[in-house]
Amino acid sequence: MSSNASTLRGFLVKLLANKTLVTEVFLQNSNQPQGTPDLSGVTVVEVGLDYVVFSQAGSGAGTLYYVNLDRILLIDL
User: Could you tell me the superkingdom of the organism this chain comes from (predicted)?
Assistant: First the structure.
C-alpha cells in the first residue's frame, strides 16, 4: 500500500469513528460531468485495507457504495 493510500485510509477511519457526514466524494474515471460529485451526503460505514464503503446518510436501508481507495480524488466535508 502506498503512503498516500495509508494516509487516506487513516483519514477515512477517523471519519468512520466520528460518524462524519461527507458532503461530496469525487472519483477518478467518473461518468459524471466535470465538477459533479460521484457521491454526496454519505457516511463511511467500513474501511478495508484498500477500499471504503459509503452509505447514504439518514437512510436506514440505503445503498452501499464500495470504492477502491486509489479511485478517490477528493473528499469534501
Answer: Bacteria
**What are the tens digits of pLDDT across the range 21-34?**
999 999 999 999 99
Instruction: Please tell me whether residue 47 adopts helix, strand or coil conformation.
Output: strand
The C-alpha atoms of residue 29 and residue 71 are separated, in whole angstroms, by 8
Alpha-carbon distances, residue 50 vs 1, 2, 17, 62, 74 (angstroms): 8, 10, 18, 22, 16
Q: Please, which pLDDT band fits residue 57 given cuts at 50, 70 and 90?
A: confident
Tell me which amino acid residue 58 is. G
Domain boundaries, the chain: 3-76
Look up the pTM and report it: 0.88
